[in-house]
Amino acid sequence: MTAYKDLSRDELLELKSGLEARFTEIKAKGLKLDMSRGKPSAEQLNLSMEMMDVLNSGANLTCEDGVDCRNYGGLDGIAEAKQLLADMMEVPKDNVIIFGNSSLNVMYDTVARAMTHGVLGSTPWCKLDKVKFLCPVPGYDRHFGITEHFGIEMINIPMTPTGPDMDLVEKYVNEDPAVKGIWCVPKYSNPQGITYSDETVFRFANLKPAAEDFRIYWDNAYCVHHLYEDKQDYLIEILTECKKAGNPDMVYKFSSTSKISFPGSGIAALAASDANLKEIRSMMQVQTIGHDKVNQLRHVRFFKDVHGIVEHMKKHADILRPKFEAVIDIFEKELGGLEIGSWTKPLGGYFISFDSMDGCAKAIVAKAKEAGVVLTGAGATFPYGKDPHDSNIRIAPSYPTPEELSLATDIFVLSVKLVSIDKLLGNL
Amino acid sequence: MTAYKDLSRDELLELKSGLEARFTEIKAKGLKLDMSRGKPSAEQLNLSMEMMDVLNSGANLTCEDGVDCRNYGGLDGIAEAKQLLADMMEVPKDNVIIFGNSSLNVMYDTVARAMTHGVLGSTPWCKLDKVKFLCPVPGYDRHFGITEHFGIEMINIPMTPTGPDMDLVEKYVNEDPAVKGIWCVPKYSNPQGITYSDETVFRFANLKPAAEDFRIYWDNAYCVHHLYEDKQDYLIEILTECKKAGNPDMVYKFSSTSKISFPGSGIAALAASDANLKEIRSMMQVQTIGHDKVNQLRHVRFFKDVHGIVEHMKKHADILRPKFEAVIDIFEKELGGLEIGSWTKPLGGYFISFDSMDGCAKAIVAKAKEAGVVLTGAGATFPYGKDPHDSNIRIAPSYPTPEELSLATDIFVLSVKLVSIDKLLGNL
């Protein structure tokens, strides 16, 4: 393959005309395909349907410690659900609180509490002139949405193949007391699928924050979300490392079963130090009498233990793996050597990250939309929706059927080519 | 019966000695009885067990508008759940948002949002020097807990047999721009079981708040929670009245199925004007991808429609009614004419409110505890836990079995008598 940049103007124009003909043809089909969000497919949801049967009208809904799951109470979760999610999150059971159906909501609430009440006695953030968060980019749009909502200034931290640029992280965290947090998806990151290296985790654990209320917001959303049995990333456990480093209170770790059982009907959890959890429980007590214990019990009875989760995730992987591979195969076949884009090849998680030539991402997303393919908005992977290079696009291969996915990827590739040619021709 | 106050010192001492002997006898039994919280009994929870069967592994979990309830999405609830709760709340379906398992959490979030973001463009409350809430007393401790948590100053408003003292409410709301809200349980109020009269509701709807961001926090927790079929309180619908009065945005109405299906595993709802809901949705969108739609569908498939809820509530009433009557019978038989206490006789809800002689409530609760009966802490029905007369005690008859309840009420009555005698003897 010749790189596009090495083609003459005439060669580009000729190429363009052929591609445009194909594009017009596909556009005429009036397709509607969605690669925008990390939603499991119907086939994946079917994997958990038997969870609907584990609690029937004849079931005993009393949990291990004698609590009737149907009634009020149980502020921080039933013991067996704590055990299940603690094992999944690789932390002691007593360092876990079980919440409702959304870890995003737990993260939102954690920031909201800091805004109005501070963190372990610090000044409430709403009383401060300036609060800043570090945002590894590209990253998860809903994280950035929370900090933007609360008027928190977001600072881009470039991702590297081993995690966020730790020189920058250390500089900001250790020197600026206005920096109160950093958003992390440490395993199979959203959208790149990068897992933080051991050294990155060690450096996180050994930060010396200028702010006593600085916290690492460690969203371990994809902790058991491998695509392969024989090729898996491994992430060092952050709570243990922070404790060893003398920073036991410096991290909040979030997770949920949203992409394990049913998105929206799963259970979420937060793991943190005793001191952090004590404070959170005391505030939660004002907010709720307790989360849905019946659903907690349903999850425990279905998965039984963490091994049940691991086995279940293999079934998800069997459905997801061919989809990831299909997209990457088309990318390699169609875009390899053209030097108009690069992409990640993750071993887990829900996304492939694509980088176009600078200044092309918005146009590619718009082009694909013309032919009926919805992608995550260009810029969404950056705070304030502003990608300084206008180059990153998040690809979510999970939701479409394999047929839809191939078609959508073809359209995407075509869009990349057309926009890149326009860019090289100086039309953008 | 001779009123205790008309007995001589010697008569009181003699009475006391007999009562103390009985108390010692009962205390020796080492009982453990709980009349502290409005928890449904196991028998009531059994009424909803068939809800566990309506969604099994063979069920179609697609809702009316084609949404797969198992997946992400559906920020403000599935259409059929909105219809069900709208009918129960007597509001149009489009004026309802369905939330997670806890209306308390919805109320907390509503105040939390006002703290950090204000209400429809007003100054965020955390930026104000002073924010005040009116608190009809006696009232619900968890309401007061929310406002106390956010440092909001609470002002006691005495309850009357027709609702809060509206002269006082009008004075505060219409004159003081720092007054941003009032907590109301308008039907079968907690703890008195009072339902606001038509005139009270009209006066609420016609308030002329000094603060543009003043809202009525209308917690209609007991909207369908009647004890009798032939004797029911009727409450005028507040959203309609506010609209008629030109105050469409002035009220947030809360409800849930916590005491209809399973406490902690029900669904909650908020009803409000279009403008209020638009703002709430836009903020919710940052907080969550959506609440548990599977549980929403489970509720709809079980109850079918509001008539299903009404029929279901008759079964709850059949279990609750004898308990309320048993407590009130014992009160009338044992305390009638003694002039050492008065109590309410509600037609619905979850509580009986007891008023002792001034300065006796704390001592009564402590005395009952000695014999193993846990009551809601004296003072809990007032902001900051401070009952200015130390006289109100909330009785929750729902949770104990009928046998336990009789025993607990006997102990309570005995405690009232003993403490009242001490009060009259000048020993308190």
Automatic annotation (TrEMBL), chains A, B:
Show the GO MF annotations.
Answer: L-aspartate:2-oxoglutarate aminotransferase activity
Which keywords annotate this record? Aminotransferase, Transferase
Q: Does this UniProt record's set of keywords contain Transferase? A: yes
In terms of Pfam families, this protein maps to: Asp_aminotransf
Put simply, this protein is called Aminotransferase
